[in-house]
Amino acid sequence: MKFLKILFLITALFFLSGCNNLTQEDNSNLTVTDVFGRKVVLKERPVKRIVAIGPGALRLVCYMKLADSVVGVEDSEKEWGATSRPYILAYPQLKNLPGIGQGGPRPNPNLESIIAVKPDVIFAAYLTKDQADAIQSKTNIPVILLSYGQLASLDINDIYNSLRVIGEVSGKSDRANQLIGYIKGIEEDLRNRTKDILPDKKPSVYVGALGMAGVHGIESTQARYLPFTLINAKNVADEIKGSGSLMLDKEYLIKLNPDIIFLDEGGLPLVKEDYKKNRAFYDKLKAFKNNKIYGQLPFNYYATNVEIALIDTYFAGKVIYPERFSDVNINTKADEIFKEFLGKSMFNEITKNYPGFVKIDFKVL
Prior knowledge:
Blueprint: H1 2-27, E1 30-33, E2 39-42, E3 50-53, H2 57-63, E4 70-72, H3 75-79, H4 86-90, E5 101-102, E6 108-109, H5 111-116, E7 121-125, H6 129-139, E8 143-146, H7 156-170, H8 173-194, E9 204-208, E10 220-223, H9 226-229, E11 234-235, E12 244-247, H10 250-256, E13 260-264, H11 268-277, H12 279-283, H13 286-289, E14 293-296, H14 306-320, H15 330-342, H16 347-350
Parallel strand pairs: 3-4, 3-7, 7-8, 9-11, 9-13, 13-14
Antiparallel strand pairs: 1-2, 5-6, 10-12
Helix pairs in contact: 7-8, 14-15
InterPro entries: ABC_Transporter_SBP, ABC_transptr_periplasmic_BD
Organism: Thermodesulfobium acidiphilum
Protein name: Iron complex transport system substrate-binding protein
C-alpha cells in the first residue's frame, strides 16, 4: 500500500509538471486583437524588430518611442520632405534604413524586402483586412492593423486603440498609457475652457484649404473638424454633413458667411493665387472684409500629425475665445506637445516653411 501511495505521488507530480510545460508552451505565443478585430499570433514578444507600412503607421510607432526598433521604412518616407512629418525630423536616422517598398495612399510593400530585414511584426494602417491577411500569409510575419479613423481626418478613440495595441505588442503599455493620459488631459483642458460658452456668444468659423490627398484651395474643408470640436466651436460646415471631408461650393460658402476663417498653410498659396483672380468672390465674405483670416499649420500629410492637430486647436482657441486662452503661449505649448509626442522641441523647425500662427492680411497682396 505504501509503495502504491509513493507511485501515485510520483505520477501526480509528473503529470502536473507536464501540464505546466504545456501551459508555458501555450503561453509562449501572444494573441493580439488589432483595431479591426483580427486575432494575430505573435511568436516573439515583446517584439524587437518592426516595420510599418501605410499612411501614418510609422508615425504611431515613433509616438511610442520605438524608432530604434524599426528595421526598414517605405521609400516615400525616405524621399518626402521631413517638415511635413515631425516624426522624421525627430528621428532622421529612419531615412537611412533599408527600403521596404513604395508608400503612399495606396502602399505597395515589397514583400521580399520586408522579409530581408527580418521584422518580428508589421504594423500597417489603411490596409484592408484581406490585404493584411495576404501579406501575413506570404511573409509569415504577423501583421497588426492600426487606424486613425477616416483618411484625412482623425478619430481620437482609434488613436487610443492603436497606441494600446502597439504597447501590448512591444511591451510598452506604460508608454501607451502615458501618452493617452496626456492627450486626455488636453481634451479635458480644452473642454473646461469652452464648455459653458453660450451658442449665441460664439462666432461662426470655417477652415479652408485643408490637405486631402494633395493640396486644395479654400473650398476644401471638414465637418466635425477636430480642432473645432475639441473647443466646442461653431463650425459652419457642420450644417452640411455629419462629419468628414468635403469640397464646398464657393457660392454656398458665401451663404454660410463665417465670422472667422482659418486657412491650412499647406494650401495657402492656392488661396492667395485664387484671391488675385477672383477678388469679387472673397470680398463677399465678411471674414475677408473684416480681416479675420488666420493661418494654421497643416497636419494632414500621410495621415494626421496628431501633435500638430492639438497645437492648431490651442491656436484656434486663442483666436475664437481670446479671453479663455489668454494664459496660453502658443510657442511654449507647441514645444510642450512636441516633446510629449516625439521627445523634442521642434516648433521653430516646423514653422521654417510656413508663416506660422498669424493673421493673414489679403488686402496687401
